[in-house]
Design a protein that fits this description.
alpha+beta, SH3 type barrels, five-stranded antiparallel sheet, 2 helices, Ferrous iron transport protein A, Transcriptional_repressor_C
Length: 72
């Protein structure tokens, strides 16, 4: 499922990242989000907020729709 479809406070593992848009891929990977990364979805509106390692990030739905996750 896409990260945008996730539920708040659930823990997810990144399965893949859509790589059609190279700029989006660069932004996502610069946050340390790669396949196998564990993240916790903290907020969905007005932006997606999630925790990766000990950092929190906020991204828009466009980028969140390019991250595919599965429930841990």
């Amino acid at each position: 499922m896409r990260l945008t479809d996730g539920k708040i406070n659930n823990i997810y593992i990144v399965e893949s990242i859509e790589i059609v848009d190279k700029d989006a891929l660069n932004k996502i990977s610069s946050m340390g989000i790669l396949p196998g990364t564990e993240l916790i979805l903290l907020q969905k509106k007005p932006t997606l907020v999630f925790k990766v390692y000990n950092s929190r990030f906020a991204i828009d739905n466009f980028l969140g729709g390019k991250i595919y996750v599965r429930t841990l």
